[in-house]
Amino acid sequence: MSTPSSWINRIHAYNATPFSKKVWLAMLRIPKGKVASYQTIARMAGSPLASRAVGNACNANPFAPRVPCHRVVSSSGEIGGYAHGIKKKIEWLKKEGIVVRGNTIVDFETIEFQH
């Protein structure tokens, strides 16, 4: 999947922690119609035990929805929190073709992005 270099450049230029930048860059790799767990993003960012810190970086993401933190969910397929509200997160996921029932991704294992 190609990522517009302008978003990569914006992330690198933004005043944020190196870890947050790694998380945001990792999220750019999740294609539309897929989701990734906080744990997967933590591994992609080089800190496999930092799932909670991934959540904090998602919450601080100034580039949403272009840097798609709405595609990051719990490893059980539950939606989890979202800075713009869970309803907005579900709305964006559904626009990308992801089926959500209640606060859970349907067929999570099938659409989970694996790095």
From TrEMBL:
PROSITE patterns: MGMT. Residues 18-98 form the Methylated-DNA-[protein]-cysteine S-methyltransferase DNA binding domain. It catalyses: a 6-O-methyl-2'-deoxyguanosine in DNA + L-cysteinyl-[protein] = S-methyl-L-cysteinyl-[protein] + a 2'-deoxyguanosine in DNA; a 4-O-methyl-thymidine in DNA + L-cysteinyl-[protein] = a thymidine in DNA + S-methyl-L-cysteinyl-[protein]. Pfam families: DNA_binding_1 (PF01035). Belongs to the MGMT family. PANTHER family: METHYLATED-DNA--PROTEIN-CYSTEINE METHYLTRANSFERASE. This is methylated-DNA--[protein]-cysteine S-methyltransferase. The lineage of its organism: Archaea, Candidatus Iainarchaeota, Candidatus Iainarchaeia, Candidatus Iainarchaeales, Candidatus Iainarchaeaceae. One of its GO terms (biological process) is DNA repair. Its EC number is 2.1.1.63. GO terms for molecular function: methylated-DNA-[protein]-cysteine S-methyltransferase activity. SUPFAM superfamilies: Methylated DNA-protein cysteine methyltransferase, C-terminal domain. It comes from Candidatus Iainarchaeum sp. Coiled coil: none annotated.
